[in-house]
């Protein structure tokens, strides 16, 4: 007889809401007994951990009398609550909170499995990475985080399969940011010509909601660097920090120190055209070689090198031909030879990110049962 | 305490040998207690099921006195032997034998999980497909068959994840045969021109070992049709048989009835040039539209249609840009929108096929423990 499974979910932002809507339609979904957001925590009353929280309709249920309501709970209290369920517990962290990620070892040691799209914990200090996985072993719990790279695309599962079956991964290369993919596919398309200025393309992406509220959070390359850190570690490289390797920032030095306030962002956007000449030069240099420029991350396992920045690609290459805001990830391995194993598609967005989380959850449930 | 796991393997051909070499290097591999090939079956002696067979060195061990040796065993006897292990058992079928596949329900009902790259059982009568999966439920056993489509590429796992998380798959399209990929990438390359005759390209592929011994076994489209049958069924279509939908054969009608003997194959190859004009016409028609011709399989879920045959593609499309003998599989879904989720890479070859089998085996072990 399978042990019953109980679920605690933190975060009800874009991905969190999409996840709750998806799990509400999942047949035989585990009981949702905890739902935490910044202002409030909903709990199925102890000691029975019943009734459960309706995933698709938690807001209505939170107004009724049947659930326990508390304010924001520290991670320790969430862990204690979940450790008490009469079965196995899984924490789904749909936030991007480093502090919650730092508490994963605490959950895992108590036997609570973790499923999350939160990059922070897996791309911070190497010591946290090691602590997370040794705690999982210690607590006989599982950690799945497919959506930390490429959202719902099968990127980490593919890399893990390659490694687990003894293939030798030699190089990983790709476009890992939907935002930067859109910017360069629009600024320097491979199959047509464009005379759009760089700053205009950034402004367009911002208006379409493709960038972070402060576009510098995309242009600084740190999001890509965090994803590369995770991939490199899974491939066996001991990357100490996400800023311990070369990262080419696309923020002009002169604009880097503007504050991240609304005024600062506004000044950044209005002064960005001053630097259009620099990006136009980069594009022209690529053109002269019959190539296009793209913002990529690459990992060379043998050379133990990780880097993030601009590179030129042949116009008929898969990276140059990318459309919209798609990601592409190429795995070069001994068994696959000269032509890499490629995964491509939307690598951002609430629905596909939540799908990656739910896919992980299904696998964790299968393994715990 | 995890239940010990025991392994029976059938087949020591190209994929079987690659699999045995790979599992020999796998840490904590399960005990290999049965190894069957057409002429002989090696068994760990009962009742202890010990000593186990050394996966990487079974040939030497088979000459020694410690293992039980029998002739070819019927599937029933293999199932009875594996059902007796003091733990959980997994059958790995590395053959392409339909008769062994017909016995999967027997294994599964006895609680023996099945891992295989053998397409036959999953692409034959729909009744066998249903029998396999209902038997698995009945016996509380698992069935994994990633390598039946695209070898080690994450094709079936991706489709299963899309379906399990409630995405709506609308269309699946791709190049599913390494042989046909090579033939068309060489005959009608997208980024350069070629004046090679069709028959010469087929002869070249045969010489390189890229085709079956009788190239008509590739050109008749049945291998692609079987893969499409599996994908369509996983996507929810009840395909009755692999020949229950339109399959465009590339074998000229006049040569279809030549015997499959060495003489027949030789006559086929020598008469194929008579039909080069037909394929040249197809290529020219595509050229006139600025396109290239490719041999693809496609599934339209809403229209419940499956088809296999020649289609024209824009030269800058991912399918047209395929290299070597790579496969490409595009999943169009509601969540992914206009740009599909794409998986691409080598879809044939002993090493990558065996890797897909081993990857499945690792997942089955994780779930059984």
TrEMBL record, chains A, B:
Pathway: Amino-acid biosynthesis; L-threonine biosynthesis; L-threonine from L-aspartate: step 3/5; Amino-acid biosynthesis; L-methionine biosynthesis via de novo pathway; L-homoserine from L-aspartate: step 3/3. The active site is at 227 (proton donor). Its cofactor is a metal cation. Its EC number is 1.1.1.3. Residues 11-146 form the Aspartate/homoserine dehydrogenase NAD-binding domain. PROSITE patterns: HOMOSER_DHGENASE. It catalyses: L-homoserine + NADP(+) = L-aspartate 4-semialdehyde + NADPH + H(+). GO terms for biological process: homoserine biosynthetic process; methionine biosynthetic process; threonine biosynthetic process. Signal peptide: none annotated. Keywords: Amino-acid biosynthesis, Methionine biosynthesis, NADP, Oxidoreductase, Threonine biosynthesis. NADP(+) binds at residues 11-16. NADPH binds at residues 95, 119. It is an enzyme of class 1 (oxidoreductase). L-homoserine binds at residue 212. Residues 154-362 form the Homoserine dehydrogenase catalytic domain. The keyword Amino-acid biosynthesis applies. Belongs to the homoserine dehydrogenase family. PANTHER family: HOMOSERINE DEHYDROGENASE, PTHR43070. This is Homoserine dehydrogenase. It comes from Penicillium angulare.
């Amino acid at each position: 007889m399978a042990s019953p499974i109980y679920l605690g979910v933190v975060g009800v932002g874009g991905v969190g809401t999409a996840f709750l809507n998806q799990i509400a339609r999942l047949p035989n979904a585990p009981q949702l007994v905890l739902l935490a957001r910044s202002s409030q925590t909903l709990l199925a009353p102890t000691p029975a951990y019943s009734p459960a929280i309706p995933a698709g309709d938690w807001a209505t249920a939170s107004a009724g009398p049947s659930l326990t309501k508390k304010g924001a709970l520290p991670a320790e209290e969430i862990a204690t609550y979940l450790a008490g369920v009469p079965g196995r517990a899984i924490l789904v962290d749909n936030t991007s909170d480093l502090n919650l990620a730092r508490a994963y070892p605490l959950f895992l040691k108590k036997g609570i499995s973790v499923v999350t799209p939160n990059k922070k914990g897996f791309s911070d200090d190497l010591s946290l990475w090691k602590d997370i996985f040794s705690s999982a072993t210690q607590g006989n719990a599982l950690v799945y985080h497919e959506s930390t790279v490429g959202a719902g695309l099968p990127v980490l599962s593919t890399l893990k399969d390659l490694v687990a079956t003894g293939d030798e991964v030699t190089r990983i290369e790709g476009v890992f940011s939907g935002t930067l993919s859109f910017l360069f596919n629009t600024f320097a398309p491979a199959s047509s010509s464009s005379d759009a200025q760089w700053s205009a393309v950034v402004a367009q992406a911002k208006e379409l909601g493709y960038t972070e509220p402060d576009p510098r959070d995309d242009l600084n390359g740190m999001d890509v660097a965090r994803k590369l850190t995770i991939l490199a570690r899974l491939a066996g490289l001991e990357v100490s920090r996400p800023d311990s390797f070369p990262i080419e920032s696309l923020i002009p030095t002169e604009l880097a120190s503007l504050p991240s306030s609304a005024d600062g962002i506004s000044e950044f956007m209005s002064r960005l055209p001053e630097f259009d000449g620099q990006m136009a030069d980069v594009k022209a240099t690529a053109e002269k070689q019959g190539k296009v420029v793209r913002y990529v991350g690459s990992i060379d396992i043998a050379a133990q090198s990780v880097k993030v920045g601009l590179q030129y690609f042949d116009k008929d290459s898969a990276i140059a031909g990318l459309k919209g805001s798609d990601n592409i990830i190429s795995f070069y391995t001994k068994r696959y030879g000269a032509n890499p194993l490629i995964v491509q598609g939307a690598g951002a967005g609430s629905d596909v990110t939540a799908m990656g989380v739910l896919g992980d959850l299904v696998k964790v449930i299968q393994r715990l049962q």
